[in-house]
Amino acid sequence: MRSPRNRPIFPLFQTPIDLAHDYWQRLLHPGDYVIDATCGNGHDTLFLANLVLKKDTNGQLLAMDTQAEAIQNTQQLLQDNLAKNMLDRVSFFNGCHSTFPSQIEKESITLIVYNLGYLPGGNKELTTTSSTTLQSLQAALPLIVPGGAISITCYPGHPAGKVEETEILSFTNSLSPLEWSCCYHRWINRNQAPSLILIQRGGREGA
């Protein structure tokens, strides 16, 4: 089977985002607290909202982005697609992902998502950087609940993205295997394709 543009269809996953979504669905439950640290145009944010903000649960979702345009795009997308009782449990933070809001408690977040690079449809010169992303990852670690995870989609097809991916991989390699399980998905037959890095915190016995 081929797509309308004569491209092949791959049933397991077509893109790194498809693969990431599969992992998120397996990890998350209604009532969880999640963060989209680079919300962009809001498509991942909406996907996450539909997983955790179910009726009669206490799920929470924080959408962050350094660009006001991204926050506005995400707000509009959620308003167009979510019921009010779900929207009421979404908060927004217009600021760099290197710093999370101070009121977030340690070991309270089930999943933190990063989709790096530039805002689709926006200024391609404005990209995430390795320095702020590494600061963010360091700050993210203590926020993750046992068994929770960090999901990072990287874009090594452009020079800044390649540096960012390389430094994130170096960071993940330094994490203790007694506490963290780190996995790297890369398309080996697609030049400059995005990649997916997953960092999962170990759970506790009996949890």
Please tell me about this protein's structure:
By secondary structure, the chain is α/β, with parallel strands linked by helices. The chain has a single domain (17-201), classed as Rossmann fold (3-Layer(aba) Sandwich). 32% of the residues lie in helices and 23% in strands. It is built from 6 helices and 7 strands. The protein has helices at 16-27, 43-52, 68-81, 84-87, 130-140, 159-173; strands at 33-36, 60-65, 90-94, 109-115, 144-154, 180-186, 195-201. Strand 1, helix 2 (43-52) and strand 2 form a beta-alpha-beta unit.
Topology, pairings included?
Layout: H1 16-27, E1 33-36, H2 43-52, E2 60-65, H3 68-81, H4 84-87, E3 90-94, E4 109-115, H5 130-140, E5 144-154, H6 159-173, E6 180-186, E7 195-201
Parallel strand pairs: 1-2, 1-4, 2-3, 4-5
Antiparallel strand pairs: 5-7, 6-7
Helix pairs in contact: 5-6
Instruction: Write the H/E string, N to C.
Output: HEHEHHEEHEHEE
Provide the spatial order of strands within the biggest beta sheet: 3-2-1-4-5-7-6
Count the DSSP helices.
6
Rg for CA atoms: 17 Å
**Which range does the strand content fall in?**
15-25%
Largest sheet properties: 7 strands, mixed
- CATH-defined architecture: 3-Layer(aba) Sandwich
CATH class: Alpha Beta
